[in-house]
Each structure stands twice: as structure tokens, then as C-alpha cells.
């Protein structure tokens, strides 16, 4: 299969900071599913420029990340990379290296696949390895929205 037909789903987050690790928790759930052969899933950790390598060999990328946009905990937003700059309120990412910086770098390198970002509103960002009750209860709906994104818009 051509690299340009692959969709990579990359979860980003820090599992040691409760809801900040939601992207990784979602990836762990997706591993339980029988996914189409053109879908690959990755644990992107806390992001950073290593994501450039993952993005390089794909036609489409879906990032899953905690995004504090002032909504109800567990709520999900879906935005395309090209519109994320206008969406950004304060600081998009909760990580040291902002996902937007990685996307900008990929653009400069001429390395930009089609990108969609699925942002999940966290409730609690503090030391701990479990999701908040709100995000645990929202997980089935979050998974449904992620699956719908790649099924309806990318395949």
C-alpha cells in the first residue's frame, strides 16, 4: 500500500499527569479494535519534533491530544491543521513543544500531510496516572468520535 494512502493516528500526552495523558489512553483503547489496514496507531508521548518523522511517511494524520479550550471536561473538538491557528485561544498544547510548532516545522520542510486534530477537554492536570471520572465516563463517546473521524473523513 502506498504511504500516501496511510492514515496515522497519533496520541499525544503525559500519562503521569492524569487527563493530560488522554491521547495515549485513547490510543490504548484503539489497540483493542480491528482497524483497516491503512490505519496505523502510535503513542506519540509528549510530542516534540520526533512527530515530524511519524508525519513524514503518511498521507493523513489524526492527532489526539488534551486541549484546554474552556469546555466541559470530556468534550471533543475536531479541527484541521490549517484552521488551528485561528482557533487557538492562549496556548494550544499542554506540552513543552507545542503541536503547532511541529506542524509549522513540517510546513517549512514541505512535509505536511493532511492533518486533523482531535482535542479533548481535560478536567484534572496533576500528578497521577488515572483519568478523571469525567474523562473515564466520556471515553466511549471519545472513541466513537475518533473512529467516525477516520471512517467518514479519511477512508
Your description of this structure?
By secondary structure, the chain is α/β, with parallel strands linked by helices. The protein has one domain: HybD-like (Rossmann fold). 34% of the residues lie in helices and 19% in strands. The chain contains five helices and five strands. The protein has a five-stranded mixed β-sheet with strand order 2-1-3-5-4. Helix 1 links the parallel strand 1 and strand 2. Helix 1 packs across helix 5. The longest helix has 21 residues. The protein starts with 6 loop residues before the first strand and ends with a helix. About 3% of the residues have low confidence.
Distance between the termini: 13 Å
- Percent of residues in helices comes to 25-40%
The largest sheet is:
5 strands, mixed
CATH top-level class: Alpha Beta
- With helices defined by DSSP (H or I, 4 residues minimum), what is the helix count? 5
Look at the structure and give the mean pLDDT: 83
Number of domains as seen in the coordinates: 1
For this structure, the CATH topology is Rossmann fold
Question: At CATH's second level, what is the architecture?
Answer: 3-Layer(aba) Sandwich
Order of helices and strands: EHEHEEHHEH
- Low-confidence parts, pLDDT < 50 over ≥5 residues? 88-92
| Record field, number of beta strands | 5
Rg calc: 14 Å
Outline type? globular
CATH superfamily: HybD-like
Give the strand content.
15-25%
Secondary structure class reads alpha/beta
Strand arrangement across the biggest beta sheet: 2-1-3-5-4
Amino acid at each position: 500500500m502506498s504511504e500516501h494512502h496511510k492514515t496515522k493516528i497519533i496520541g499525544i500526552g503525559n500519562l503521569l499527569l492524569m487527563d493530560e495523558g488522554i491521547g495515549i489512553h485513547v490510543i490504548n483503547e484503539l489497540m483493542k479494535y480491528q482497524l483497516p489496514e491503512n490505519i496505523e496507531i502510535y503513542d506519540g508521548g509528549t510530542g516534540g519534533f520526533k512527530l515530524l518523522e511519524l508525519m513524514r511517511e503518511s498521507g493523513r494524520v489524526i492527532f489526539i491530544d488534551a486541549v484546554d479550550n474552556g469546555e466541559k471536561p470530556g468534550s471533543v473538538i475536531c479541527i484541521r491543521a490549517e484552521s488551528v491557528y485561528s482557533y487557538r485561544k492562549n496556548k494550544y498544547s499542554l506540552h513543552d513543544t507545542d503541536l503547532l510548532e511541529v506542524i509549522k516545522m513540517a510546513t517549512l520542510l514541505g512535509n505536511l500531510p493532511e492533518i486533523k486534530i482531535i482535542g479533548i477537554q481535560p478536567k484534572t492536570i496533576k500528578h497521577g496516572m488515572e483519568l478523571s471520572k469525567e474523562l473515564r465516563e466520556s471515553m466511549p463517546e471519545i472513541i466513537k468520535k475518533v473512529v467516525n473521524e477516520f471512517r467518514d473523513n479519511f477512508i
